[in-house]
Specification:
With 256 residues, this protein is α+β, with helices and mostly antiparallel strands. It is built from seven helices and 14 strands. Helix 3 (115-137) packs parallel to helix 5 (170-181). The longest helix is centred in the middle third of the chain and has 23 residues, at 115-137. The chain is globular and about 45 Å long. It binds one DNA strand of 18 nucleotides through residues 10-11, 13-14, 35, 37, 61-63, 108-110, 116, 148, 165-167, 200, 202-205, 207, 214, 216, 243, 246-247.
DNA sequence: ATGCCGCCCGTAGGGCGA
């Protein structure tokens, strides 16, 4: 078994002990992290190497920042989307054996009438080209992280309330569908066709207790990976801890 | 609803996230 997980931690400095606790009990082979809000210099590499993990990190002060932790050796580390200049650190790619792994933190978009929404859509066009190119070079590709898109109405606690809003809008969903059309599969949805589950709950309004959530974090995989996929599960437990991230881990299990 | 909560920077309160 190989387990591959993703978790938007909303500040690695604040969440370090929770991440370490979770890693000790789950022992993921690979953990992709988003929203580090940490520079490369302040990222706690030593804490993860002490658990036996190799670390690749693309940090940024205050906002964004992504990392990949792996028990197996990582190689061919690529920062960002090649050919697309972006000061925001949102993409990190590594190779593990013959598998390419892309950790992604898709822009939030703020609101559909904002410049940030336009940036999100434009950014995604570049990301689509990168995903397509990567899949051609690596038949076994996994893209995991915080997509900031709820793909369908069943991924939204109140689709009527959310209709047309950022994270749910048709243009954003078209971006996600374009990724699927390239040959990537939404592992959670394929393996749990009937399950309603979310990966993010707002800090406000007691949203977690009321299960007012969205499914924003995803692990996408090409067919050559999907044939090994056994389970993909949301772990809601860390959201019950003191001072949690607003996102929870998502874990994909692959047969050997 | 210019709201709610949490984090960052920096030491007040605005920017940002989702």
């Amino acid at each position: 078994m190989l387990s591959i997980a993703t978790w938007n931690v909303n500040s690695i400095r604040v969440r370090l002990e929770q991440v370490l606790t979770w890693m000790r009990s789950h022992a993921p082979d690979v953990l992709a992290l988003q929203e580090l809000k940490s520079t490369d210099e302040t990222f706690p590499i030593g804490a993860f190497s002490a658990l036996g993990y190799q670390v690749a990190v693309s940090g940024q002060a205050t906002y964004n920042g992504v990392a990949i932790l792996s028990l197996k050796p990582l190689s061919d580390v690529v920062h960002g989307i090649p050919g697309y200049e972006d000061a925001q650190k949102r993409v990190l790619t590594v190779t593990l054996d013959d598998m390419r792994i892309i950790c992604v933190y898709v822009p939030n978009g703020a609101s559909v009438d904002s410049d940030k929404y336009q940036y999100k859509l434009q950014w995604f066009e570049h990301f689509l080209k990168y995903a397509e190119k990567t899949k051609k070079e690596y038949p076994k590709t996994v893209i995991l992280g915080d997509y900031n898109i709820a793909p369908e109405d069943r991924d939204v606690h109140d689709p009527v309330l959310w209709q047309g809003q950022v994270l749910v809008s048709e243009k954003e969903r078209a971006c996600f569908k374009a990724l699927l059309a390239l040959g990537f599969q939404d592992t959670f949805r394929v393996l749990n066709p009937e399950e309603n589950n979310y990966t993010w709950w707002d800090y406000r309004m007691n949203a977690f207790k009321r299960n007012m959530g969205l499914r924003l974090d995803h692990i996408l995989a090409t067919h050559a990976v999907m044939v090994r996929a056994k389970q993909c599960d949301v772990d809601k437990t860390p959201r019950t801890w003191e001072r949690p991230s607003d996102h929870v881990p998502l874990v994909l299990q692959l047969d050997d």
